[in-house]
Amino acid sequence: MKKHTKLIAGIIGIILGIIIAFCIPNPQGLSHKGMVVLASLVTANVFWIFNVIPSFVTGLLMLCSWVVLGAVDFPTAFNIFSGTTMWIIIGGLALGAAAIKTGLIKRIAYKIMSWFPANFSGQVLALFTAGTIISPMIPSAHPKTAMSTPIAKGLSDALGYKEHSKASSGLFLAAIWGFLVMEASFLSATAQNYAFKGLIPVKYQAVLNWGNWFLMMLPWTIVTLVCGYFLLRFLFKPKDDKTISKSFIHKQLQDMGTMSRNEKITGIVILIAIIFWILESIVKIPAAVTALIAVSVLISLKVLTPQDFKTRIAWNTIIFIGSVMALGNVMQTVGLTTWLRIILKPVINPILGNVWITVIALPILIYLCKFAVVSLISTGTLILVALLPFFSTMSFNPALLVLIVTTSVNIWMFSYMDAPFITGEAAVNSSMTTASALAKSSFGYMIINIIGLLLCVPVWQLMGLA
């Protein structure tokens, strides 16, 4: 985005914030503190939409503005940074960093690919399978797309596909689909899942443990994998889907050599951590504690070094997530949620009145928002914050909204709408896919997503959540 556009947007955002906080009389039912929080939220959203300054800096300034302008005190504004969610994110990102550093993830990916036929259909299925299996190990989308798309590029070259051809686009999108889209299937697959979970009141968060999340999303996972596979085959399969030698894949595995000590340790530690996350309600060990113990073991065994802990973890992402998660608690503290419920009731009530309507209408609303709000976390935050006032009056568990938001923010009609796509394209020098391929596959996903969510509703009803 051009520099002057960011500057103009920044000035407009600040002016809007000042007008809301200090020039407009407090509406009935909302205090000055509530107006300050509303003003900061408006300004922050303008900054996030136009990327005026780094997103995490905007988030920190938003929190600081609440303290400086007297909306809440420091402990209230920054309370989220002492909560368990932030430590789960830190621990999860560190585990993912170890899996990438040791080469474990690449080894798993290539090994899975060696099991499938070396043709378009076989390797699309391999990328889907590898991405889905690897997703819960790395809670960050950018490293996964940066790693998976070059693998897809190597496969495309080995299969003899021309750059930007249908088949090349199909393999690129298969890597994205498996390693990025399927993140919604597992709580630990991306930090944004924890961020959205952290936005809702604590009393609703308990149901969103690792095991429940997986069960609640299982119909969606199956539908999205099966339909996604056939969608990419329909759109991009070459006429001559010939099978070639797997020499490329075998060479990659051969070059990696035998499994190293650090790979083995990382694999065992991550596997044990996932088991404890699944059994969290039984073993009574908080997920954050499990993550931190796992990271401590890796550092103690020198799989990760203190330097890795400083440089391989996206601390800016952690700060950004923490700042947006703080919104829910502060909005309730200053009475902003109650006021918004009254104002937005005529618009929101029809959407949330019935869970079947919600899983159709809410994704469509999110799709429309994504054309304006680029950041996945920002979009999800805006939606959940807008719906927060209605949690107490809903006919189904508000935790389900987190699942709907998680699956629906990840669309890519245009590459700018999904930052990890940009990372993936950059990793292969934009040599694999086309704008048309992105649009067609994204539109297909948008339909599949709603179908998958509809099929989840009976499971949610059996679990007593809807």
TrEMBL record:
Transmembrane segments: 7-27, 47-69, 76-100, 120-138, 171-190, 210-232, 262-279, 285-301, 313-331, 351-369, 443-463
Signal peptide (UniProt feature, chain positions): none
Keyword entries, A-Z: Membrane, Transmembrane, Transmembrane helix
Keyword field contains Transport: no
Membrane topology, from the record: Multi-pass membrane protein
Subcellular location: Membrane
Keyword Membrane: yes
Family: Belongs to the SLC13A/DASS transporter (TC 2.A.47) family. NADC subfamily.
The protein's name in its UniProt record: Sodium-dependent dicarboxylate transporter SdcS
Annotated source species: Lactobacillus colini
